[in-house]
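To the wet lab folks,

You asked to see what we're planning to order before we commit. Fair enough. Below is the target structure as tokens, and below that is the sequence we designed to fit it. If anything looks off to you, flag it before the synthesis order goes out.
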């Protein structure tokens, strides 16, 4: 059977739609992709030469003059947490960045469907969230000015267990300097994983870096985003269902 997308359900008889007739939202089963992607490989990406070249208005239709993206969900997966950010912070622009093509397609279609469903209802319009397919390990400074971001999220990143693949981890010493470049002073980096070894790796590398300090436990707990980190993302919800452990660490840019 042929697969069709679209929000209006205008499909030929006998075809399968990637959009649920019940919810009006895209169905994940049509967008499945293997969990691992080699971030070092030379994927084919269109990316801006510099932040001035990014056409943000095409992603955020209601973007105000002078407004900037300030929250970035790196490796946003199927977009559950990104949607939560949009609902929690209606006045902030949040971007999801995802390297896997089918997964990023799903998030884009999900946002389009949410915008379509909420139009004229008075509900949150989801015009403050968007997703782009890119490799954040290579191109983050191509998208953001120095000190532009207030919050960066790394939720359930690929652990790349084999020692030879540790260089693929999204948190490493070289990349931490790039993240510090695009992060405002006082900005926060949120990390969450269900792999204790990766958690220890993240904490060690970030505490060794001169531009970050870890938030004490009471500040972590008081952050209104913290409870959402456990449940909002699809990965987080899966860990809860499987009664697994979560390992949270939040760091402040000095």
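Sequence we intend to order:
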């Amino acid at each position: 059977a042929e697969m069709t997308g679209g929000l209006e359900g205008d499909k030929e008889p006998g075809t399968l739609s990637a959009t649920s007739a019940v919810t009006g939202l895209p169905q994940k089963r049509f967008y499945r992709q293997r969990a691992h992607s080699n971030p070092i490989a030379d994927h084919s990406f269109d990316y801006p030469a510099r932040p001035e070249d990014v056409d943000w208005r095409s992603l955020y239709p209601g973007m105000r003059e002078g407004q900037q993206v300030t929250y970035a969900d790196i490796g946003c997966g199927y977009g559950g947490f990104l949607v939560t950010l949009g609902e929690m912070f209606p006045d902030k622009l949040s971007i999801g960045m995802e390297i896997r093509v089918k997964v990023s397609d799903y998030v884009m279609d999900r946002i389009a469907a949410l915008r379509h469903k909420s139009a004229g209802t008075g509900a949150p319009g989801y015009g403050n969230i968007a997703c782009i397919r890119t490799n954040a390990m290579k191109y983050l400074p191509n998208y953001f000015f120095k000190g532009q971001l207030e919050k960066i999220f790394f939720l359930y990143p690929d652990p790349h267990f084999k020692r030879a693949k540790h260089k693929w981890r999204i948190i490493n010493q070289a990349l931490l300097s790039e993240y510090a470049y695009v992060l405002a002073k006082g900005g926060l980096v949120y990390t969450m994983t269900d792999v204790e070894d990766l958690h220890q790796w993240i904490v060690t590398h970030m505490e060794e870096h001169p531009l970050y300090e870890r938030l004490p436990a009471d500040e972590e707990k008081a952050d209104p985003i913290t409870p959402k980190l456990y449940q909002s993302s699809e990965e987080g919800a899966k860990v809860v269902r499987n009664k697994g452990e979560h390992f949270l660490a939040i760091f402040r840019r000095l």
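Structural context that might help your review: The radius of gyration is 18 Å. Strands lie at 3-4, 16-17, 69-74, 93-98, 129-133, 149-155, 183-193, 212-214, 247-253.

Thanks,
Computational group
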